[in-house]
Amino acid sequence: MDSEQIDYQSLNYLSTVDHNLCCPICRSPLVDPVYTTCLHTFCSTCINKALERSQTCPVDRTPLQAEDVSPAPIMIANLVNELAVLCPNSELGCTFTCARYLVEAHLSHDCEFVYMKCRECGDKVLRRDAGRECLHQLEECTHCFQHIKKIDMEAHEKECPGLLGECMHCRLEIERSELKEHEFTCEEATISCSSSSLGCPWSGQRKELSHHQAACPFTFLRPVLQAHAERLTKLELENRTLRKRIEQLTPRINQSNTTEPLSFDEQAYQFLTEQEHMRQDMERLSATLGELEIKQGMLLMNESLRTKEELAGIRAAINGIRMQIHWLLTVRVHGTEHRHVVGGGAGTPSNSAGPSHPAEHSASRRLSDNFGQGVKL
Amino acid sequence: MSSPAASTALLRRQLKEMQGDKDLSNISVGLIDDNIYEWEVMLMISDDCKFYGGGFFRARLSFPKDYPLMPPKMQFETPIWHPNIYPDGNVCISILHPPEEDKYGYESVQERWLPIHTPESILISVISMLSSPNDESPANVNAARQWREDPTGFKKQVRKCVRDSLEMC
């Protein structure tokens, strides 16, 4: 055995290992421990593979080169090398345990469960059998007369068809190869009634079957029941096919309903219903129209009432203004008359002629008066 | 160390450890099709977790053959609404990004995968990511925007997926 072939990472350790002795990458006890300039310890293969990917320490990301890695102190190496492990061949049957560094020697010199070359034929054989005669010669099985290699004989005996086996029902000893067949004829095997498919609940030993069947009502009715069952399955099948057919046809019928031309009656009926619909629509429309008219009228009335009121108000205002103007005019006329009387009657001989003259006269004065009034206001 | 046998042995050991660890009662792990590289993970989120408390989320961890030198992938199989989880369930978290390539550009090497991470440390990081999303690298842009702009709506959406997760298992 080469040391390379020992997979140290999958060794089984006898006791749980202190996690400080484990590589942080492979999480198993250090193999060939090394430490870095940042003082972290790894298996040498683990850290080398990791540095191929990323040149930093896997623990604290310090930049790291392959040169920054050196073998760990001997003490650490000794601590992991002296851990007790099971022989890697423990699954094959080796019970040897030793310190880890001795495993290699054990495998190469002592372990009985290491495969070696057979001295005679070169085939592989366990070390414990290697000293004896060649186990790869054929040998005849004493039970089934097959030719088996000696080395496989042990395994063969467990399943040799020529060996006797015991029937679990009648305790009869027969060859294993015939055991299965025997099961179908064994008198003491537990079976159910041949009419169990029709509902017979009986089950018992085969030798009692004929006795049971003489009295079994299901067996008695068997022809009738079977005929019924057959008919049922036939009907079910038919039913299923029919249902399928219906499923296929339904969409087609629905389609044809919409596309096929209708008969006269149907057409007439359609027209009539359409007409009815239209009539109803018309009624609804005229009703809404009437409502709208009423609404419109109301709106119009409201609006005109408002305008009428406004008009009346404006008229009243105009009247008021007219009254005021009239009053003002009369006041003015009287005023000028008074002034004329006071100012000198010689200039205005026609003053006393009538009220129409002063009105005409005042028109020329009114302009200037208006100015005056505007200033006064 | 990166031979398939080594990663198999390591994963077997870690699976056994996780299944036997009583402190991890809210995480249950098993294999898919008896394949040691495909783990099925059930995360039972404790009630004190923000938003996602009480949820039962199933996820799949797919380990590469050169584990632990390269990180596994994690994909949620239960639909989950989270800024850092793609709509197809893939988890975007920096410790699951391999150390050498920098396809995301923004993260420093400092945050990425280390061979000393374990399935346990990954799952614990993911659980803590659930309650504190990383806004800078949204995997689900809509969820990230909602988380930022409409916390109430985000909460509602998450509670819905928590409820759905309970129905699914």
From TrEMBL, chain A:
Superkingdom of source: Eukaryota
Gene3D superfamilies recorded = Zinc/RING finger domain, C3HC4 (zinc finger)
Tell me any Pfam family this protein matches.
zf-C3HC4
Bias type Basic and acidic residues, positions: 358-368
Which residues form the TRAF-type zinc fingers? 155-200
Query: One GO MF term, please?
Result: zinc ion binding
All copies of the RING-type domain together span 23-61
Report residue spans for region: Disordered.
Answer: 340-377
Q: Which SUPFAM superfamilies match?
A: RING/U-box, TRAF domain-like
| Keywords noted in UniProt | Metal-binding, Zinc, Zinc-finger
- Domain TRAF-type: from-to ranges: 155-200
Its recorded name reads RING-type domain-containing protein
List the source organism.
Terfezia boudieri ATCC MYA-4762
TrEMBL record, chain B:
* Annotated family: Belongs to the ubiquitin-conjugating enzyme family.
Q: Which residues participate directly in catalysis?
A: 92 (glycyl thioester intermediate)
Q: Which InterPro entries does this entry report, sorted A to Z?
A: Ub_conjugating_enzyme, UBC, UBQ-conjugating_AS, UBQ-conjugating_enzyme/RWD
| Gene Ontology molecular function: any one | ATP binding
| Domain (UBC core) ranges | 6-167
**PROSITE patterns, per database record:** UBC_1, UBC_2
Name of the protein in its database record: Ubiquitin-conjugating enzyme E2 2
Matches recorded under CDD domains = UBCc_UBE2G1
**Pfam families registered for this protein in UniProt:** UQ_con
Superkingdom assignment: Eukaryota
Q: Which UniProt keywords apply?
A: ATP-binding, Nucleotide-binding, Transferase, Ubl conjugation pathway
